[in-house]
Amino acid sequence: MNHTAKYISELLYRYECVILPGFGAFLTKRQPAMIQESTHAFFPPQKIISFNSQLQNNDGLLANYIATAENISYTDAVAKIQRYVLSLRNKMANGKRLELDGIGSFYTSVEDTLQFEPSQDTNYLTEAFGLNSFISPSILREEKNITPQTVLPQVTRETYKEQVEAIEEITPIAFTPERRRERPYLKYAAVAAIGLIIGSLGLHQVNTQTNLANGRILVKAEEEIQNRIQEATFDITSPLPAINLNIIKTDAVTEEISENTNIEVVNASGKYHIVAGAFRIKRNANKKVQKLKSKGFDARLIGINKYGLHQVVYNTFEDRLEALEALQKIKKQQDRRAWLLIQK
Question: What sequence ranges are listed for the domain SPOR (predicted)?
Fold first, then answer.
């Protein structure tokens, strides 16, 4: 039994784009919580699924996941995906409606175009786990209006005076003079209070000194960690099994780059950057830029990240789909550790 649709559904919880090679890509977009005023319905935040039939190249994500889940080779996983896609296309050719559990359904329109209808039963946003939509009844508020005919009773000062005089005649109050007693224990209580105040001030001073010492230790440890970092390269891809490929090595032309080469940071238009690496030493970052430019990439430095590392990118794009296509090509032909950085 082919469980490819189930594997795609599991990957949609973790990724924004899952490609079914030879068929198309499933894309997700976050939608915030909303309220439908007409029906008083509340909907939690969720991921909206869309389909793009133009993205069909194999990026290895689905195949590697199937190979790990079923304990088979990568080649067998690719063959299994191809058989699944062939069965989908045969059903579509016969005019049948395709139903992918938890994902959505496909059908052919009157204009003979492929249409996708996402499923509303599954929420792929992990942050909204356990949140369901509900309908709240409308709240009715009662307003009490005071009409001009309503006359409130007026209580005057003379009325209160008469009531007080009547109470004094019935219940007389007598005052008996009494000698004030000395209370020596108040002196001891005052001395104890002063002692507690002095002790709390001393304890506060000790805590302040301790916090300052701990702060200095943390700053020193942070500086030590930063000094030990020489080069950092980030990989956001899932730890999937590696693909063993037989590559024929050719003679590479080594270019000597001067240590004094200084490449300035370029602010290019676009928020989608394909990152090649991040370096503690700027000279190493400049060498990486020159190397990528020699391969035909529009490489540049985009600045320093929060770790103090100089970031080098292959290229920068304004369109998200173009950036994803370029990332797939670079990971396949250049470096599988390349990743996509989105800067708003």
Answer: 266-343
